[in-house]
Design brief:
Layout (H helix, E strand, L loop, with lengths): L7 H5 L2 H21 L3 H23 L7 H21 L5 H27 L5 H29 L12 H20 L5 H19 L7 H23 L2 H24 L4 H6 L25 E2 L2 H9 L3 E6 L1 H6 L2 H13 L3 E6 L9 H8 L7 E3 H4 L8 E5 L8 H4 L18 E6 L19 E5 L2 H14 L1
Parallel strand pairs: 1-7, 2-3, 2-5, 3-4, 5-6, 6-7
Helix pairs in contact: 2-3, 2-10, 5-6, 5-8, 5-9, 6-7, 6-8, 6-9, 7-8, 9-10, 12-18, 14-18
Length: 476
């Protein structure tokens, strides 16, 4: 029938329909983020948020102003061909650098969009469009290049130690002032594309120089901060493009990333400006108060143990608290650790997992690994919940965690981590530490815990050690 209603294309491009689709997408975004707050619902939350993004992208493509569909399809095809295999093949130990890389790609995309819009508008846009455009160019470029350095540090391409240049802070201030001055000249009426390119270049150098002096211990906070910056730059780009979906999605990412950054900084008892100033973590080893002259398995103050002895100690305990760290991630030992916890549970031992907010190399790193190994969420205890439990803990089993268990944070005022909240495993009746060697952690200082008379060191690969201890427990 003809004449009974509007053509399908007109109906699909109706502004009210597109606005309604955006509203539904935003609801799905929020429900998805809510699901991500719990490991048991994280997969479903991720799927819901992905469905919301697919709906938002579809609604955007329906707008009459959108064209070049073949070019868009080519971009989607290339992104899918690269992104899906990369995401499927990445190991859990490499997930932090994958997050940094993907976040950087988002910031770079925003910077390029800002450049394209500037070229389209010719610098003649109104201030309410030009200001967010310039903001997205600066912040997007900083996020892209800063995330690249973060990826390099996590991947081992760039040294994880703080890398500083002479006059670091003055140079950073000069680069920021250059970007802002060029942006001010453009808003004052200049249409010079050279000024815009100068903005992108100065912001690129700033992104590199801001992240280079940040050490490994601060990397989780930096990744979260860069993620927030990418979200804010995307929201600003959405204001220029008059794209509601981009504004809302960017603000959600920016707000959640900012909150997470603040929470993690507090967990380390450090301010965000101090972290951005850099210089903490990844340096040469500094002896703790109980370290003595040298370190290693032969040091007289270090007591080593065997898998058989550790199994006996664990099997006859009432409460065992397992403290995972990046060493567990490197060894991919999460499944072996869960197997050990299961064997202890069969013997009636109460087992809990202590999670420090910045353990690992990204927010929630340990939670993700343990969830992958199907460790019950009820066994996971956050730092504030588990610390009062250590006084009644028979054995604290530390697997690859270093700085987050170092009593120097509480006992040694001259220590660089002094004041940082830690998992107070030294209050347990006894401690077993599974570690490859006596090498220091990200902060570059020795762990006083290793020299405590009630601490026994089980040297070796975390996965192999956990499997061996589990086998010994099974044979008792």
């Amino acid at each position: 029938m003809t004449g009974s209603g509007p053509p399908l294309a007109v109906f699909l491009q109706d502004p009210d329909l597109i606005a309604g689709a955006y509203v539904v997408a935003f609801v799905l975004f929020i429900l998805g983020m809510r699901g991500l707050s719990h490991p048991g619902t994280a997969r479903r939350g991720n799927a819901i948020a992905a469905a919301g993004m697919a709906l938002a992208v579809g609604a955007t493509l329906l707008q009459r102003e959108v064209g070049d569909y073949w070019l868009i399809a080519l971009g989607v095809a290339i992104g899918t061909a690269v992104g899906v295999p990369a995401a499927r093949s990445v190991k859990m130990t490499a997930m932090p650098q994958m997050v940094a890389l993907f976040n950087g790609v988002g910031g770079g995309a925003v910077a390029l969009i800002a450049w394209a819009e500037f070229r389209r508008l010719g610098g003649s846009a109104e201030l309410e469009l030009m200001i967010p455009l310039l903001f997205s160019a600066i912040v997007g470029s900083v996020s892209f290049w800063g995330s690249g350095i973060a990826f390099g540090k996590l991947q081992g391409i760039v040294s994880g130690r703080p890398v500083k240049v002479p006059g670091q802070q003055a140079l950073n201030a000069a680069l920021l002032a250059t970007a802002v001055a060029c942006a001010a000249a453009i808003t004052a009426g200049s249409e010079s594309e050279g000024l815009f390119i100068a903005i992108l270049l100065s912001a690129a150098l700033l992104g590199n120089l801001v992240v280079l002096p940040i050490g490994g211990a601060d990397m989780p906070v930096v990744i979260s901060l860069l993620n927030a910056l990418t979200g804010l730059s995307a929201a600003a780009a959405g204001m220029t493009l008059d794209n509601t979906a981009l504004i809302v999605a960017g603000m959600l990412v920016g707000a959640s990333g900012s909150i997470l950054t603040n929470l993690m900084a507090k967990a380390m008892n450090r301010s965000i400006p101090a972290i951005v100033a850099g210089g903490f973590g990844g340096g040469a080893a500094t002896a703790g108060s109980g370290s003595g002259a040298s370190s290693g398995p032969t040091h007289p103050a270090v007591r080593s143990t065997t898998a058989a002895d550790a199994a006996i100690q664990l099997a006859y305990a009432r409460l065992v608290v397992i403290v995972p760290g990046y060493g567990m991630a490197v060894a991919q030992a999460q499944h072996a650790v869960r197997e050990l916890a299961d064997e202890l549970g069969k013997r009636g031992v109460e087992v809990k997992f202590a999670i420090h907010p910045v353990a690992g190399r990204m927010p929630g790193h340990m939670n993700v690994l343990l969830a992958e190994a199907d460790v019950p969420y009820e066994q996971l205890e956050e730092m504030d919940e588990i610390n009062p439990e250590f006084s009644r803990t028979d054995v604290a089993l530390v697997i690859g965690a270093n700085d987050v268990t170092n009593p120097a944070a509480r006992n040694t005022p001259e220590s660089p981590i002094y004041g940082m909240p830690i998992l107070e495993v030294d209050r347990s009746a006894s401690v077993i530490v599974v570690k490859r060697s006596m090498n220091p952690g990200f902060a570059g200082i020795e762990n006083e815990l290793y020299y405590d008379p009630k601490t026994a060191m089980l040297f070796g690969d975390a996965k192999a050690a956990a499997m061996e201890v589990a086998a010994e427990v099974r044979g008792l």
